[in-house]
Design goal:
The protein is α/β, with parallel strands linked by helices and 421 residues long. It has helices at 8-28, 31-47, 49-65, 70-76, 80-95, 134-145, 159-175, 192-198, 213-222, 245-257, 278-287, 296-299, 330-340, 353-362, and strands at residues 103-108, 114-121, 124-129, 149-153, 183-185, 206-210, 235-239, 266-272, 291-294, 306-307, 321-327, 345-349, 367-370, 389-391, 399-401, 407-414.
Length: 421
């Protein structure tokens, strides 16, 4: 049990100690046991759905009183369909191939030594996240399936939802005979607990931040524990001169408006000066309820477009707002993305194969797309089951981080009595 009279450092240290022990137990558990635990956890989410939705309603009421934006309220909201999607996501993780024990490569040395690199769990993972309560289930499922113990610290705005989801997940894995301490939820909303997690060197093996720019900035500034960074989704869609107008209209509206509050939403549009249907695409966005902030060329195509500021090109709106500019060609589009992208997801719409391939090779982002909506930037859509986040860094894991990204490897050496001369 957690003692809320403890200091944040003592609380996190105690949770980490239990997590370490649970991690050791998980290493000895069979994959079938972990699969069974997740299946039971998914069923518990369904069985407890009324209680979880009631808890979420309480969070929604509190968030509305605090003045959270519509986009953040959408991230926070759970209903029967979203909760069923969360349960189905847990089941999808249970069905994924087990990465543990996979031989990455094998070498036989001239002296007969056999060297293998084999996938193993990372250990204890701390996940710090905001708003979206489904992350509680997604992160717990992915960590457990990869043999890791998780310490989950959600945002204060979702505390009741997170507690209800965590209780269901713990019920399921406990029923399968797995240690419930493998998925622990930090019980306090005190921000000092986040600092304690970030300083828990030797207790927590990896921190995964999943939230807004201020959260990620704090984690990167204060962390003494290794961090798997998930920066904001400053995503750009570039409409090339060769783009099919009908495809461009459909993709742009979907990329921006399907769900405006997710990290895969397009935030900036670039239109090639030679693209003939810019006005039609801008009109479709405006008619769909999206505010467009543009440069002079884009403002000229529709009087409803407002003037974009310098800040707009670096803003993740998470709302029905998009910045839009005209560029002279592929080189200018690539340069604009390099200057303003968060290296999350960027896309080109084009029928010109050569231009598209150049874009895919030149844009240095975790996910680069051709003729597809940036809203596909999601681990589930990539066939990875749920995701723990989209890494915009360049080390360890990049893009949607799922099971394989939550493992490391060790060397196994087999000999027949060799001694080193």
């Amino acid at each position: 049990m957690n003692d809320l009279t403890q200091s944040p450092e003592m609380l996190i240290a105690a949770m980490a100690a239990r997590a370490r022990q649970a991690s050791a137990t998980l290493m000895q558990a069979s994959d079938a046991d972990k699969i069974r635990g997740l299946e039971l956890a998914a069923q518990a989410l369904r069985d407890r759905s009324d209680a979880i939705i009631r808890a979420n309603r309480q969070d929604m009421d509190n968030a509305a009183q605090r003045g959270l934006s519509g986009a953040l309220l959408d991230r926070l909201r759970l209903d029967a369909d979203r909760l069923e999607g969360t349960a189905a996501g847990v089941e999808a993780v249970a069905r994924l191939s087990n990465p543990l024990g996979t031989v990455i490569d094998e070498t036989v040395r001239p002296n007969g030594l056999v060297l293998q690199r084999v996938r193993v769990p990372l250990g204890v993972i701390g996940i710090i996240y905001e708003s979206r309560p489904n992350v509680t289930a997604d992160a717990a499922a992915l960590c457990l399936r990869a043999g890791n113990a998780a310490i989950l610290r959600g945002g204060s705005e979702a505390i009741e939802s997170n507690r209800a989801i965590h209780a269901a997940m713990a019920e399921g894995i406990g029923a399968a005979g797995l240690p419930v301490d493998a998925i622990q939820l930090v019980p306090t909303t005190d921000r000092a607990a986040v600092g304690a997690m970030l300083r828990a060197v030797g207790l927590i093996d990896l921190i995964v931040p999943r939230g807004g720019k201020s959260l990620v900035a704090r984690v990167q500034e204060e962390a003494r524990v290794p961090v798997l960074a998930h920066l904001d989704g400053m995503n750009t869609t570039y409409v090339h001169s060769s783009a099919d107008p009908e495809m461009a209209r459909a993709l742009v509206v979907n990329a921006k408006m399907r769900r405006t509050g997710i990290c895969g939403a397009t935030e900036t549009l670039l239109f090639d000066a030679a693209f003939p249907a810019t006005a039609d695409v801008v009109k479709a966005l405006l008619d769909a309820g999206c505010a467009v902030r543009g440069d002079a060329a884009i403002r000229a195509v529709d009087p409803r477009v407002s003037e974009a500021s310098d800040e707009d090109w670096n803003t993740e709106y998470l709302d029905a707002i998009v910045s839009a500019a005209q560029v002279s060609g592929l080189d200018e589009a690539i340069a604009h993305i390099a200057a303003h992208s968060s290296h999350h997801t960027d896309a080109i719409i084009a029928t010109d194969t050569q231009a598209a391939e150049r874009f895919l090779n030149a844009v240095d982002s975790a996910i680069v797309m051709w003729n597809a909506s940036t809203q596909f930037a999601d681990g589930g859509e990539f066939g990875l089951g749920a995701e723990i986040g989209i890494s915009t860094g360049r080390l360890h894991a990049r893009g949607p981080v799922a099971l394989e990204g939550l493992t490391t490897y060790k060397w196994i050496v087999r000999g027949t009595g060799q001694t080193r001369p």
